Amino acid sequence: MKVKIIYWSGTGNTEKMANAIFEGAKEVNDDTTLINVCDAKVDDVKDADVLIFGCPAMGSEELEEEYMRPYMDSVNELLKGKKVALFGSYEWAEGQWMEYWKEELENLGVQVFETVIAYDNPSEDALADCRSLGKAIAR
Ligand SMILES: Cc1cc2nc3c(=O)[nH]c(=O)nc-3n(C[C@H](O)[C@H](O)[C@H](O)COP(=O)(O)O)c2cc1C
């Protein structure tokens, strides 16, 4: 089972979460790759069984618009039938962007296995949740 973690992070908070998910997933599945969305291709989604996408709350409860939004728009339709999870950091509001993101995928018929959000610089507890997510989804 091929696992890919694809993320965007402006100031490193979501990147810390991505690293923790990677650590957890690697423990149970060697075929796990961590990719910055700036380097991600559509094929990265095509050949994966498990996709874990990360993006902080940006804009007004939106995905980052230069890389993450266009990337998701190009792969959303390919996610049906795959195992998908979402994560990211936020600071100004209460995590609504993650609800919108999950809802958007569910409306396309994609099942979202889990979402993990962390306030600002992720706490040790939040990072532990990230490692658990990686471990649970990559088995
Ligand atoms: C341009 C911009 C827009 C943002 N919009 C939101 C928002 O709508 N809701 C929110 O909770 N936080 C918002 N934030 C705060 C970020 O989500 C928060 O700083 C997060 O930790 C950044 O994660 P990163 O270090 O992975 O880039 C915004 C930050 C920036 C720079």
Topology record:
Layout lengths: L2 E5 L5 H16 L3 E5 L5 H5 L3 E5 L13 H8 L7 E8 L5 H12 L4 E8 L4 H15 L1
Parallel strand pairs: 1-2, 1-3, 3-4, 4-5
Helix pairs in contact: 1-5
The site of flavin mononucleotide (FMN) has 20 residues, from helix 1 and strand 4.
Keywords: Electron transport, Flavoprotein, FMN, Transport
Pfam family, one: Flavodoxin_1
GO molecular function, one term: electron transfer activity
Can you give me a brief rundown of this structure?
The chain is α/β, with parallel strands linked by helices. The protein is built from 5 helices and 5 strands. Strand 3, helix 3 and strand 4 form a beta-alpha-beta unit.
Q: Describe the strand arrangement of the main beta sheet, using strand numbers.
A: 2-1-3-4-5
Cα-based radius of gyration, to the nearest Å: 13 Å
Query: Which second-level CATH architecture applies?
Result: 3-Layer(aba) Sandwich
Largest sheet: 5 strands, parallel
Task: Indicate the low-confidence ranges by residue numbers.
Answer: none
State the domain count.
1
Sheet-strand content, in percent, reads 15-25%
**CATH classification, class level:** Alpha Beta
Helix share, percent: 40-55%
Helix/sheet category: alpha/beta
What is the string of SSEs from the N terminus onward? Answer: EHEHEHEHEH
The distinct ligands, each listed once, are:
flavin mononucleotide
